[in-house]
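quick one before i forget lol
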Amino acid sequence: MAEQTKTRLPYVFDLNLGSSMANIALPVIASLLLCSTLWVLPQPLILLFIPLLIPATLAVFRFPVWVCLGFILFSFFRLHEAIPVLNPLKIPQLLALASFTVLGWHIFISNQIKIYWSRQLSLFAIFFIMVCVGAVFATDRAAAFANIKDTYIKIAIMVCAIAWLIRRPADFSLASALIILAGIIIGCIAISNKLNGIGLVEGTRVTIGRDIGSMIGDPNDLALVLTFPLSFAASMLFTSKNSVAKRLLATLAYATIAWAIICTQSRGGLLGLTAVTGVLMWCSIKNKAIVIGIGSLIFVILIAVAGISNRASGGANEDGIDESAMGRIYAWQAAISMATHHPITGVGINNFYANYFFHSPHWDGKNHAVHSTWFQILAETGFVGLSLFISLLVGAFKLALRSLRRIDLATHLDSSLKVMARALLSGLVGFCVSGTFLTQGFIWPLYILMALTIALDHYLNSLNLSHDGQAIKDSGMNPAT
C-alpha cells in the first residue's frame, strides 16, 4: 500500500519520523523555520497565522521538489517584481530558507535525497571555485563577493538540488509545466505593458518592473528570460506523443512567449527564438532543406514584425554600423583587454562595468555592459575561466544529445522525458545563440538547463538503459512512474 502511494504521489517525500533523531530535529527545525519567517516578515499579524504556518511547514518538508522549483522560478523570472502585490511578501527569501532547510533535512536526516556525483558536477565545482578565487583578486572585491553571496552561490546550491531532486518522469513533467506557466505569466504581463505603453524603452521596447529597478526592466534581459520557457513550450508542441490538450496549451504558451519576445525588439532575443524553433523543427521534420528555408523565412518575418528598423538605437535611421552594434564592439574590445591584463582570474565576477573605463578604446562618458556571455566570462574569469565555461557547455550538450538519442530509441518511455530532452537541447542552442548578444554568464538559464541534463542522464542510467536505447534491464523501477 505504501508503495502504491509513492507511485500515485511522486512529489511526496517521507519525513522518516521513525528515527529518534528525526523526532528531535523536526520540531527544532520547524521552530527555526517559523522564527525565520517572522524575521523575514517582521509583522505582528503573522502570529495570527501560526496555526496555518504549522501545516505549511510540514508541507514544505513533504514537497521539496515544489519548494525548490518555486524558489528557482521566483529568482529567475522575478515573478514578485512582475506582480507588485507579491513583492512585500518576500517570497524568494522565504522559499530560499525553505529550500535550504528541506534539502538539509532530506539529505542528512530522512535520507530521501540520494547524493551522487558526476563529471559534469565536477566541472561546475571547479568553475565555481575559479569564480570565487577570481573574486579574491577582483579589482572591486565588494562587488564580486556581493554577487556571489546574493546570486551565484544560490545558483550553485540549486544546480545540485535539481540534479538530486528531479528523479522520475513526474518530476520532469512538473518542472516543464511550471517553467511554461511562469513564461506565460511574464509573457502576458509584457504584452499588456506593450499594449498599454507601460515602461517602454526608446518609446517602443517593452520592459517589466523598470520603475522598481527589476532585472527584467531591461528589454534585452526580458528577452533572455522569455527565451528560456520558449524552449519548453516549443518542445511540448513538437512532441507528437503528447495529448491534444497538452499540445494546444503548448501552442498558446509558445504564441504568447514569442509575441512577448517580439515586443522587446531584442535582436538577441529574436535570434534565440529562431534558434529554439529551428532546432525543434530540425528534430521533427525529415526534409532538412524545408527546415532551413522555413527557419530563414521566419527570422526575416520576425525582424519585420518586431519593428527593429524603427528602434531609436540600432534602427534603419542610422547609417553604417549602428550605435547599438558599435557599443557592443567597444565593449568586446574592452573585455579582451581585461582578459589580456588578467589572464588567469579575470577582473572578477560583476566587475566588467567598473573596469570599462580603463580598458575601452572609446569613452563616451559612461560605463557600459558587455552584452555578450562569452566576452563577459572572458573578462571576469580570464582565459582559464572561459575554457572551463566552454567545457561545461560542451558537456551539457553531450548529455542532452545522448539522452535524446536513448529516449528516441526506447520508445516505451514516458513522453515527458522526450519533452524534457528536446527542451534541453533546444534551450542550450538558444542560450549559445542569444548569449552571443546578451549577458547571461552568471544568471540562471544555463545552470538550470545543465542541472536538468544531469538529472535526466542519471535517471536514464538508473534504468540501466543502454546508450543505444535498445534495452532496459530489470532495475526494480517502473519507467512510467
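fyi The chain has a mean pLDDT of 82.
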